[in-house]
Amino acid sequence: MSASEGQGSRTDRPVRHDILFEPVKIGPVTARNRFYQVPHCNGMGYRDPTALAHMRGVKAEGGWAVVCTEQVEFHHTSEITPFIELRLWDDRDIPALSRMVDKIHEHGSLAGIELAYNGMNGPNLYSREVPMGPAHLPVATFTYDPVQARRMDLEDIRNVRKWHLAAVRRAKTAGFDLIYVYAAHALGFLHHFLSRRYNDRVDEYGGSIENRIRLMREITEETKDAVGDTCAVPIRISVDELLGEGGLYKEEVEDMIGLMADLPDLWDVTLAGWENDSRTSRFAEEGAQEPFIDGVKRLTTKPVVGVGRYTSVDRMASLVRKGVLDMIGAARPSIADPFLPKKIEEGRFEDIRECIGCNICVSGDFTMSPIRCTQNPTMAEEWRKGWHPERIRGAESDKPVLIVGGGPAGLEAAQALGKRGYAVTLAEAGTELGGRVLQEAKLPGLSVWVRVADYRKMQLTQLPNVETYFDSRLSAEDVLSFGIPRIAVATGATWRADGVGHYHTQPIEIEEGAAVYSPSHVMAGTMPEGGRVVVFDDDHYYMGGVMAELLADKGCDVTYVTPASEASTWTRATMEQHFIQKRLIEKGVSILSFKAVVAIGPGNASLACMFTDRIEEIAADSVVLVTARLPDEALYRDLKARETDWADAGIESVVAIGDCLAPATIAHATYAGRRYAEELDAEPPAEGVLPFKREITELLPLTE
Ligand code: ADP
Ligand code: SF4
């Protein structure tokens, strides 16, 4: 029996949450409760169909009454290579989708498919077809592809309707219960037809609201006629493009919804483009969409679902009670905790792993790699590695474990090993658990990140076999004296202050008397001197931008220098870049792109141009170098140096995990902690065998 089996039988939830467990009728199908996993991308798509099927299955197991796919490209004339989504181009795609449906049905949930024709969002780099949209316009991608979409004529429109219908029939064959008409997020041709921003047509598909919704109406009617007896047909629509009257705006979209009020079986309402609908906690609070979606329910008798990174249970219940939503939609909260509904149902609030709104999950899609999550390190590993967010196999030996360092890596290892049933000692140098998360959560906009520590601390309180010691900065001598056989060193990392990062691989010239700081200094409370501060960001994730923001808030005159073209450039993958740059500009930070700090003197910094190598000197009372981190690996190194003493001390293994091994994101650290816990006492894979499962493309016979 696994250590955590048997958990979850309590049903002492407050009565006020009962409303969340009422069934909801959606056309011809019924959802068993109000928890609805809306479509979300995951970077697995057509490349990793079985891994994806298992990931969705775990959501169903966790109690989500409806579990949807990501967007599914339904015809080869519209695809968004290099992004990896699901495809339903012909019958050969059906088995992969059926596998997912089966996994969802296994747990009594409904399976939804979001059929998408990206139109002018896809440059069709794979199929090499000419993209189509309502107007002659450059394709709208993130990369300014030098490709234009052509204006669809009436025959094109008839064709796309035909293709949609063929996909609808295939989706039904695959077993789906809900088949979407997708008109949201500016990510598909239906949205483009709705919005005057893209639709300048003068035929019956352009101009008036009635004309612009015509295609959405036709497609919805055709879908309902084809499968409406057994499948529900939701429409997903953006309630506002946040562009004023130049784009879709609330009143206009409400008119559109009013005109089609009860035609679909459900309205799935979203806000603007994806980057606005899934804003990080740094830029939007829980429920930021509420003012926009409030009111939709008055326009229809059909159920309404919407998202808002909801993890507060009282708020969810009140949204239903107030008549804002019928179903609580979630992408990110369902990723961070696939068992959120079950835990609410059983009143196990202390076990909820709340999403921190960091959008590392989104970066999976943007980097075309399997989705990962800061809070849920088992995400996408359900099949690849056999990990489960709630279950872990029992201990396979009675040998205790010492974990040194209570940051995300150490905490995750401790709680997962505790659940396996091992005797665990967790030693932390400080007086609190959380490591880097505690410090970073104090920075502007990052307070929600403390949930990484909170969830794990709460789990530890339920594990009598894990003992935590504070004020315990351990030396190698200490560790040897304990005689605990297995040791994981999770002592973290420190920001370096010598300029080494992506651009400089050697320390830069820093003159005596120069005032130079790293984020570690700033987070420890040592603030840069003087008013003119240069922040050199050669890390490119959030820290450089956050430092600039913090110092601007303190009244410093901040110049932000980056070798990249824009601030915090990697945050394009978390859809934050635009918001970060906007905030820095609004706070008066001056941004110098394509420049690197190459030398620092007292009162000045020398910058090199990335293209010409030309040097300019600017005044700087102090410089904050946000470039890279160095592992705090002294303990690990000392222990390795004393390997000959291990046997006498009863030590079998010493492993460095998380930032102590190689600094990376917090998601990497929780993953590293989980991996250590999962692999303890496991047989390592045989030589030549991969540590994860994968699928490879089927080869067709050579016909030449
Ligand atoms: P990670 O992200 O890999 O978990 P963190 O930097 O967040 O790393 O956490 C490292 C934790 O380890 C910090 O809380 C720090 O106080 C603690 N720590 C560092 N060195 C020692 C040590 N020698 N003994 C015990 N704890 C340590
Ligand atoms: Fe939430 Fe971050 Fe996990 Fe995404 S990666 S689900 S935003 S905690």
Task: Give the secondary structure arrangement, pairings included.
Elements: E1 24-26, E2 29-31, E3 35-37, H1 49-61, E4 66-73, E5 86-87, H2 94-105, E6 110-116, E7 132-133, E8 137-138, E9 148-151, H3 154-174, E10 178-183, H4 189-194, H5 209-212, H6 214-227, E11 234-238, H7 250-259, E12 266-270, H8 274-277, H9 290-293, E13 304-306, H10 313-321, E14 327-330, H11 332-336, H12 340-345, H13 360-366, E15 401-404, H14 408-420, E16 424-427, H15 436-440, H16 451-461, E17 466-469, H17 476-482, E18 486-489, E19 493-495, E20 509-510, E21 516-517, H18 519-523, E22 532-537, H19 542-553, E23 557-561, H20 577-586, E24 590-592, E25 595-601, E26 604-609, E27 615-619, E28 622-626, E29 629-631, H21 634-641, H22 646-649, E30 653-656, H23 666-679
Parallel strand pairs: 3-4, 3-14, 4-5, 4-6, 6-10, 7-9, 10-11, 11-12, 12-13, 13-14, 15-16, 15-18, 16-17, 18-30, 20-25, 21-28, 22-23, 22-28, 23-24
Antiparallel strand pairs: 1-2, 8-9, 19-29, 25-26, 26-27
This protein binds adenosine-5'-diphosphate and iron/sulfur cluster (SF4).
Report on this structure.
The N terminus is likely disordered. This protein has 23 helices and 30 strands. 29% of the residues lie in helices and 18% in strands. The strands form 7 sheets. An 8-stranded parallel β-barrel has the order 3-4-6-10-11-12-13-14, surrounded by 5 helices. It binds adenosine-5'-diphosphate and iron/sulfur cluster.
